[in-house]
Amino acid sequence: MSVGSVAVVVAEEIGVPSWDLYELSIPCTVFGKPQPDLADPWYELRLCGTGAGDGGTAGTGLTLRTGHGLDGLVDADTVIVPSVPDSCVDEGRPLAPELVTALRRAHDAGARMVSLCTGAFALAEAGLLDGRRATAHWMHTAQLAERYPKVDVDESVLYVDDGDVLTSAGLTAGLDLCLHLVRRDLGAHVANQLARRMVVPAHRPGGQAQFVELSVPARDDEGLGPVLDWARAHLDRPLTVEELARRAAMSPRTFYRRLRAATGTTPLRWLLNQRLGRARELLESTDLPIEKVGELSGLGTANNLRHHFLRQLGVSPGAYRRAFPREAPGGYGGGYGEGYSRPSSTGSFRMSSKTTVSGPASQSAGVRPPA
């Protein structure tokens, strides 16, 4: 059983500037390196350019050749546009018509369409973002909104998952989105292990659902690291800001302020995210009763666990477990993420229920803000 092919667009007719190589390398790293101990087979990666095999020379003298032309997009399960030329963004230079046509054909054939950074301009030009929420690098969101008024541009998020069309902000946010795709396809355990191998967090703060409520990376705070590690190891017990602050040798107000500055979220939200992550891992990797999963994750009763799953993920714990069965062909969960299915006729990923995060977290998550 294959998780599908990932086609990455390379605009070879003008080459890839060195500063755009980062976005191009992200999907190559995530989807192009086999991980047989995590999932076998892994993704099938293909680089697709407007002139397969011809090569293009960037301004820095780099030459890049691809093994596929744009026809390689049409039958792919996932299509990723890492970026578009700066001249197309800043000067309004038209995108290659054959690229726009190929993107439309791929979408019509059922491919999951993804953009990183300025790649959103290509999806927008193809009309694939009309009426959808989308994002791009914050330096270009105003241009995106002005040029494509039918797109609901949100500059405050790292990425947006709208089911069959996903967009991300620039640079490292593209990595967040690619790891999110792995989690959606293969489950939390695989995504977490892959992130660990890449020495990056599986989720940046706020990222337990599709819409991530941070526009900048979290800052490191050495004073918080040990206490947060301790909290993760003791999620099954009641935790308060006062206790965590005492372990960090801070006042509750200082701890609250430092945690929010370092992670972009409150202690309540941070703890809830950790507990939801633990619950998801337990549902994927064990046959423990729902009640026990709630207890070990610190979310309490089965009813409370169900409440948070429905509120944050849009599915019940039971439905989530069924989406990621423990024993499946290929040695991995086999599900395609909460609320998703993969029609056999096209091989594409479709979303049957969307997930958003809104409103304050319930106090039943087990931590209280300081008075």
TrEMBL record:
Molecular function GO labels: DNA-binding transcription factor activity; sequence-specific DNA binding
Keyword Transcription regulation in annotation: yes
InterPro entries from the UniProt entry: Class_I_gatase-like, DJ-1/PfpI, Homeodomain-like_sf, HTH_AraC, HTH_AraC-typ_CS, INH-QAR
Pfam family, any one: DJ-1_PfpI
Keyword DNA-binding assigned: yes
Compositionally biased tracts (Polar residues): 342-365
The protein, known as: Helix-turn-helix domain-containing protein
Species of provenance: Streptomyces hainanensis
